[in-house]
Amino acid sequence: MLKFYYNPLSPLSRRVWITLLEKEIPFTPILINLKEGEQFKPDFLALNPFHHVPVIVDDGLRVLESLAILDYLESKYRDRPLLPKDVSQLAKVRMAQMVSNNELSSLVIPLMSETEDSPQLGKAKRKIKRILHFFAELLAEDAYFGGENLSLGDIVAGNAIVLISKLDFDMSQVKKIEQWRDRLMQREVWQQTQPNDKQMEIFKQTVQALIKSQGKNQIIHKVKQS
Ligand SMILES: N[C@@H](CCC(=O)N[C@@H](CS)C(=O)NCC(=O)O)C(=O)O
């Protein structure tokens, strides 16, 4: 059976976790305790020399990098497709994925580390708002980025948006995105995989400890590579 190396507090693991569950692919979860440094153990480094979760091993094939894993799962497991056939819908799904990755993900760091009066926090919030308006434009009148059905774009972008909401960003500024987020959160798989308040607290403390030990720019750089 497919093995899934993950940590439930890792937003990038969650992309893969949600995809596995939404596609109803059977898997064995293997928890990697990042706080205890299990990602640096030789057995795990043999799977991922860059010491990151998520990783999957399927039929003897090891795949790392969350987006590469999503593409692999979609190509191999054809049931419950998460990519639309229509080319313009597909372009929207890909844009949602890439904008989340390249523009949005790193903005989580200032939300967790800057004080209310910091100019960096104001700048991050303004950029998030710009991204939300762009997502609203992509969604247009559809329920999801891929049209009427959930897509990989919704999983990647939605996962980041739910996290940002949990960091007290006011989503009601862009109603269409707030409603889309609520639509995602009505799905059983999303309720099952999103962190509760206690887990969010642990996540924040872990990121703050990383910022303290490695510096904010280093962490932002790492998130940008995700
Ligand atoms: N580009 C990778 C990044 C994965 C990544 O940064 N994972 C984090 C958790 S969200 C991790 O494993 N951090 C532990 C470490 O780097 O030691 C991906 O998209 O899969």
How would you characterize the overall build of this protein?
It is a single chain. The chain is an alpha+beta fold and 226 residues long. The protein has two domains: 2-76, Glutaredoxin, CATH 3.40.30; 87-193, Glutathione S-transferase Yfyf (Class Pi), Chain A, domain 2 (Up-down Bundle), CATH 1.20.1050.10. It contains eleven helices and four strands; from the N terminus they run E-H-E-H-E-E-H-H-H-H-H-H-H-H-H. Strand 1 (2-6), helix 1 and strand 2 form a beta-alpha-beta unit. The radius of gyration is 17 Å and the shape is globular. Bound molecules: glutathione (GSH). Glutathione binds next to helix 1.
Care to give the gist of this entry?
Helices cover 59% and strands 8% of the residues. With 226 residues, the chain is α+β, with helices and mostly antiparallel strands.
Number of individual domains: 2
Shape: globular
Number of strands: 4
- Secondary-structure element pattern, one letter each: EHEHEEHHHHHHHHH
* Regions with little confidence, pLDDT below 50 for 5+ residues: none
What layout of secondary structure does this protein have?
Layout (H helix, E strand, L loop, with lengths): L1 E5 L4 H12 L4 E5 L10 H6 L7 E4 L2 E4 L1 H11 L10 H18 L3 H6 L5 H21 L12 H15 L8 H11 L2 H6 L3 H18 L1 H9 L2
Parallel strand pairs: 1-2
Antiparallel strand pairs: 1-3, 3-4
